[in-house]
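Summary of Year 1 activities. Much of the first year was spent building the evaluation harness for sequence design. The harness presents a backbone, in tokenized form, and records the residue chosen at every position. We chose the following record to illustrate the format because it has been used consistently in internal testing since the harness was completed.
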């Protein structure tokens, strides 16, 4: 089964030169890889690097293996939306995927389920593939209920066909490496969450895991049949570590 490795670079690195360096390192590894792997590699850089990275992806070994993702999308396709970047603009840059509902946008920037739902519909309306993040803030007795409610509100009003186009990323907020006392989830507990997501959506839904994924633990998640891949944050801009994750597959 093809596994997804999604690199959410967040607000990193700090220059195009550094971005190029990371990609050159990955490219070199892919060129020398002896065995061809069943994987989909998706790089989600900050908006300002999309144009440069799109060109790099189309002219290297990465063109065979990597696709471009964006970290956000505007609600409208054009017009008076200061600071926003629209779906058609992203498509023209070669973007195929868009992350919506990331916990940093939900909790640090106040994005509600309703707003995430609108963004999700905009991604779909632009024929882009959404990577929809969900996950609880605390793993308490209520977490399953929280997850079901967040998922239902985030995907409200979507047809079954549209739901089938969504990749869901289960990212418990407490597991994200930039949060205090973070630690990766136990794969057996991730499976409980993945089962809930599949119950609410469909057994065929692609569900990724994200939260403190490193080269040491990636395999624990990637080898599970029910998990379609990983969404990697901090480590995705550490080139050696990230290539180690690719080697896991
Ligand atoms: P970390 O891998 O740094 O925990 O981040 C996960 C994440 O938020 C990816 O979207």
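For this record, the design step produced the sequence shown next.
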């Amino acid at each position: 089964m093809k596994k997804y490795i999604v690199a959410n670079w967040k607000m990193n690195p700090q220059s195009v030169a550094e971005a190029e360096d990371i990609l050159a390192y990955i490219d070199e590894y892919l060129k020398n890889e002896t065995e061809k792997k069943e994987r989909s590699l998706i790089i989600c850089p900050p908006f300002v690097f999309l144009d440069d990275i799109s060109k790099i992806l189309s002219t290297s070994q990465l063109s065979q293996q990597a696709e471009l993702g964006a970290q956000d999308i505007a609600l409208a396709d054009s017009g008076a939306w200061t600071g926003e970047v629209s779906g058609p603009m992203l498509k023209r840059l070669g973007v195929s995927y868009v992350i919506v509902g990331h916990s940093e946008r939900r909790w640090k920037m106040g994005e509600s389920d309703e707003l995430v739902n609108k963004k999700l519909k905009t991604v779909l309306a632009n024929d882009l593939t959404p990577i929809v993040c969900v996950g609880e803030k605390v793993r308490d007795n209520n977490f399953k209920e929280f997850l079901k409610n967040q998922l239902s509100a985030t995907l409200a009003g979507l047809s079954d066909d549209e739901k089938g186009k969504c990749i869901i990323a289960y990212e418990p907020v407490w597991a994200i490496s930039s949060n205090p006392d973070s630690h990766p989830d136990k794969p057996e507990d991730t499976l409980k969450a993945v089962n809930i997501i599949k119950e609410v959506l469909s057994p065929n839904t692609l569900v990724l895991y994200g939260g403190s994924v490193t080269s040491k633990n990636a395999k624990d998640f990637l080898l599970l049949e029910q998990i379609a891949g990983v969404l990697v944050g901090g480590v995705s801009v550490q080139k050696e570590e990230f290539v180690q994750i690719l080697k896991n597959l």
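Strands lie at 3-8, 39-44, 66-70, 95-100, 129-134, 167-170, 206-210, 229-232. Quantitative recovery figures across the full test set are reported in Table 2.
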